[in-house]
């Protein structure tokens, strides 16, 4: 595979940009190769500067539920740009998207738009602190909620991949209020609550983790978490930046049948443009300025272009709930093909999937916690990644991430992936 132009661009990028990338996980650092510079995305494919075409399972890390540059989102953006890009003033579309989100996700009585998942989660924590008057919060080891200081304590995603789950630059003061529990372990939560009675403002969780690789919380764990937060008057925050509108029309909370107090969103709600959001119970959200004292702001929050793209995406989701059946069929087909390969190769790797997000862990035991996820052989994952790339399949360049299928992934794409998976697993194991 010719990577001449990408290699040269990467050398130049390293001169001007830390690590040559604008987000660490893109650097291919943990898979031992150099990143490809992409020029175009269309449907299920991406094309790099050297003309190589790949079946894309990153989908910009989750936003592209409908594949790259779907015509209906492209049209919405082009129509919007005729009227300008941003006014710094309220627009009708912001009211419409807020209403639509609350229709699709019943726990959302009010919602505030922001510009990234990180802004959404940090604002949700601040709001929970303002609402309860308490300062501490519980997160789970291996979950990633963006890069606000107090989240970068044993975080997942790129922080875990690069071996910096607790980042330098995060002060002791900031870290002091972050309490760490074990995913899927309710006793670890009870212990922290006992030790910090009436001091905990919130519990934040990825109800289906994507940032330690895909690990689904158990129904009983989520149910007990809801019960404990009710008893202790702790704000339960579902971080659905990745799962929102991905795993179901109403997100992970629809699958669990559990209503959190606050939910954070990102990725899909921006239709490929920078958007995040946080919302939930009216009595909590009315704490947010200017209706309440908890300050939160953003120059480009709710800007017309991003709202046009996001509203087009969410409107399609509202009017075409059948896409989740289609995504499930495609994802199950791929899962079954890969598991058939495991049988042929007498390998018992762990393939975790919820809807159209999945992770292949290179460990031969069930992965249902952070402790089992990190048993995965990341060196073998790196070899697998590069073999799949040679065969035209573009996976996450990191073990502790999710792969995403879009409505545009064809049977031909999936068959090509199953074949490449067999050949790659054969090659790296022998
Ligand atoms: P952003 O600030 O990157 O928009 O969102 C942060 C975030 C919050 N919560 C969850 C559950 C998330 O998955 C994310 C971001 N996800 C990563 C992928 N694992 C973004 C990719 C990257 O960091 O470049």
Give a written overview of the molecule.
There is one protein chain. This protein is α/β, with parallel strands linked by helices. The chain has two domains: 4-69 and 322-428, Alpha-Beta Complex (Aspartate Aminotransferase, domain 1), CATH 3.90.1150.10; 71-319, Type I PLP-dependent aspartate aminotransferase-like (Major domain) (Aspartate Aminotransferase, domain 2), CATH 3.40.640.10. It is built from 15 helices and 16 strands. The strands form four sheets. A seven-stranded mixed β-sheet has the order 4-12-11-10-7-5-6, sandwiched between helices. Helix 3 (92-104) packs parallel to helix 11 (304-319), helix 7 (186-195) packs parallel to helix 8 (219-232) and helix 12 packs parallel to helix 15 (411-429). The two termini are 22 Å apart. Residues 23, 25, 61, 116-118, 121, 144-146, 157-158, 206, 210-211, 239, 241-242, 266, 276, 401 line the site of ligand KE4.
């Amino acid at each position: 595979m010719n990577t001449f132009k990408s290699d040269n661009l990467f050398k130049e990028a390293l001169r001007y940009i830390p690590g040559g990338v604008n987000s660490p996980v893109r650097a291919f650092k943990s898979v031992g190769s150099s990143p490809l510079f992409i020029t175009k995305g269309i449907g299920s494919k991406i094309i790099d500067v050297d003309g190589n075409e790949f079946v894309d399972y990153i989908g910009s890390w989750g936003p592209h539920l409908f594949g790259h540059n779907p015509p209906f989102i492209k049209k919405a953006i082009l129509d919007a740009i005729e009227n300008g890009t941003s006014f710094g003033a309220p627009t009708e579309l912001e009211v419409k998207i807020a209403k639509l989100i609350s229709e699709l996700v019943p726990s959302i009585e009010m919602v505030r738009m922001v510009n990234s998942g990180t802004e959404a989660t940090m604002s949700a924590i601040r709001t929970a602190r303002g609402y309860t008057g308490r300062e501490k919060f519980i997160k789970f080891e291996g979950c990633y909620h963006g890069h606000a200081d107090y989240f970068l304590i044993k975080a997942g995603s790129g922080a875990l991949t690069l071996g910096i789950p607790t980042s330098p630059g995060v002060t002791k003061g900031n870290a002091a209020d972050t309490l760490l529990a074990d995913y899927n372990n309710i006793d670890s939560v009870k212990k922290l609550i006992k030790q910090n009675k009436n001091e905990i403002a919130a519990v934040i969780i990825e109800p289906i983790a994507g940032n330690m690789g895909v690990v689904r919380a158990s129904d009983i764990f989520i149910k007990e978490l809801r019960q404990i937060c009710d008893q202790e008057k702790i704000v339960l925050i579902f971080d659905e930046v990745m799962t929102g509108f991905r795993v179901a029309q109403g997100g992970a909370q629809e699958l669990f049948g559990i209503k959190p107090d606050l939910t954070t969103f990102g990725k899909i709600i921006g239709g490929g443009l920078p958007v995040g959001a946080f919302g939930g119970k009216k009595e909590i959200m009315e704490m947010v300025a200017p209706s309440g004292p908890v300050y939160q702001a953003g120059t480009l929050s709710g800007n017309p272009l991003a709202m046009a793209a996001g509203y087009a995406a969410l409107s399609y989701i509202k009017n075409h709930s059948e896409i989740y059946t289609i995504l499930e069929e495609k994802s199950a087909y791929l899962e079954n093909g890969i598991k058939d390969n495991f049988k042929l190769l007498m390998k018992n790797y762990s393939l975790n999937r919820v809807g159209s997000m999945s992770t292949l862990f290179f460990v031969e035991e069930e992965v249902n916690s952070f402790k089992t996820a990190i048993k995965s052989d990341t060196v073998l994952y790196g070899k697998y990644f590069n073999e799949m790339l040679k065969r035209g399949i573009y996976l996450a360049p990191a073990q502790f991430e999710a792969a995403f299928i879009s409505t545009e992934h064809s049977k031909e794409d999936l068959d090509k992936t199953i074949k490449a998976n067999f050949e790659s697993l054969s090659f790296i194991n022998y």
